[in-house]
Specification:
Helices cover 77% and strands 0% of the residues. With 103 residues, it is mostly helical.
């Protein structure tokens, strides 16, 4: 007969799996944010580069919303990050100089 494992061992194993999954999602959000900021700052009012930045923004917003929905990042933090990135995009889309966006 097999030895019975404790529930604490199972709980530890589950929390480790969740931690790694959450870490991956957070990393993905940060990477997409950095990609968007880089594209936004190098766009220089070029229509093709602005379109690339818009695509990167949409991808980043999708990842942030998914992470917030799953509870990996908080709802207000997600909204704050999306707002800052949208303001950056609006500034490059207009004739103003790009504003600084926090990652």
């Amino acid at each position: 007969m097999a030895k019975k494992k404790s529930s604490a061992e199972k709980r530890h194993r589950q929390s480790e799996e969740r931690r790694l999954r959450n870490k991956s999602v957070k990393s993905s959000v940060r990477t997409s944010a950095k990609k968007f900021v880089l594209l936004a700052h190098k766009s220089g009012h070029n229509p093709t580069e602005i379109a690339e930045a818009e695509t990167a923004l949409k991808d980043m917003i999708k990842k942030i919303d998914t992470a917030a929905q799953k509870g990996i990042i908080k709802k207000n933090a997600a909204g704050r990050k999306k707002s800052r990135m949208q303001r950056l995009f609006n500034s490059i889309n207009s004739n103003k100089a790009p504003i600084k966006a926090d990652l």
